[in-house]
Amino acid sequence: MMFKAILFDLDDTLLGNEMDHFLPGYFELLGQFAERYLPRDQFLQELMICTEAMIRNVDPALSNREVFWQRFEQRTGLDSAKMEPFFEQFYRHQFHQLQGRTEKRPFAPQLVQFCLDHNLDVVVATNPLFPRIAIEARLDWAGLPVDAYNFALVTAYENMHAAKPQPAYYAEILDKIGCQPAQALMVGNDWENDILPARSLGIHTYWLSLDGTPPPDEVQVAYGRTLQDVYTFLAAQLAFE
User: Fold this and answer.
1) Which of 184, 208, 182, 181 is nearest to 194 (CA)?
2) Which residues lie below 8 Å from residue 98, measured CB to CB, with a gap of 6+?
3) Which of the four CATH numbers 2.130.10.10, 3.40.50.1000, 3.30.1330.30, 3.40.309.10 does domain 5-17+103-239 have?
4) Tens-place pLDDT, residues 134-166
5) The pLDDT value given to residue 237
6) What are the sequence ranges of the domains in the chain?
7) Fewer beta carbons within 10 Å, N or C terminal of the chain?
8) Alpha carbon of 227 to those of 23, 27, 115: distances in Å?
9) Which of 17, 47, 14 shows the shortest CA–CA distance to 29?
10) Is the pLDDT of residue 218 over 80?
11) Alpha carbon distance 178, 157 (integer Å)
């Protein structure tokens, strides 16, 4: 395999972040913050509906950000030009209270630096349902601040026009970095979001199976439990190039 690019999922891959633990705290904080404009339960319902619209979107003319705010404004009657800066303040300040719900994976910076040292394009291929500021915060929590690592791309709702598990999301990444599917490796912990859609395009995949569960018998895919396992795999591949 001649890899040109490595795509890393973020949550529960580069950063320990179990969504069943993280999201309740996130919804609680964000719901409280939004109560100035909408009752908490109503806001959270609208948030989920508009997020689902982003997940379904594959229109290359509309960024995920545009899909979210168009739908949010249509459904609530609130002016997106006013609301978007309001919520940016949430991500700039309150969002950091959630860091304690995540866990740094100490080997993540070493693994990313190893890839960069081998002149590989490194993409933070996190589901682009959050604004860039929220993704940069989680990268900081992972010990991977964007000003210290030369990422080829960090996917966010501002710069992407599809989301996981749409294969169009992965196709857009490859187009942005000028990489053929056979030259890319996607590393992630989520079988449905990370592995299957990437494989459908011919991208090589590495499944971070955190509990050690092997892939289905009919699927041949590299897998391991830790980022050190990913490093071992990559080092072996690069030794033959």
Assistant:
1) 208
2) 22, 25, 26, 29
3) 3.40.50.1000
4) 999 999 999 999 999 999 999 999 999 999 999
5) 87
6) 5-17+103-239, 20-99
7) C
8) 24, 29, 12
9) 47
10) no
11) 20
